[in-house]
Amino acid sequence: MWNLGNLIFVVELLFAEFILLFNYPRKKYFFPRIIIGLIVLILVVSFCVPFPETLIADPVIGFLRFIILLGLSILLMLFCFDGKGGAIISGCIAGYAVQHLTYQIKTILYIDDWINSGGFLTEFLVFIIVYTIIFFTLGLFIRRHNYYENYHKIFIIISAIIIFVCVFIYRFARLSANDEITTLCIALYSITCCSLALAIQYIVYEMISLQISNKTLETIISQKESQYEISKQNMDLLNIKCHDLKHQLNHLNKEEQIEIQKVIDIYDNPVKTGFDVLDVTLNEKIKILYDKGIKINFTGDGKLLNWINDVDIYSLFGNALDNAIEALDKVKEKKKKVINISLESKGDLILVTIMNYYAEALKIGKSVILTSKKYEQGFHGYGIKSMEYVVKKYNGHLNIYTNDNIFKLTFSFIKH
Question: What is this structure's pTM?
Answer without folding.
Answer: 0.56
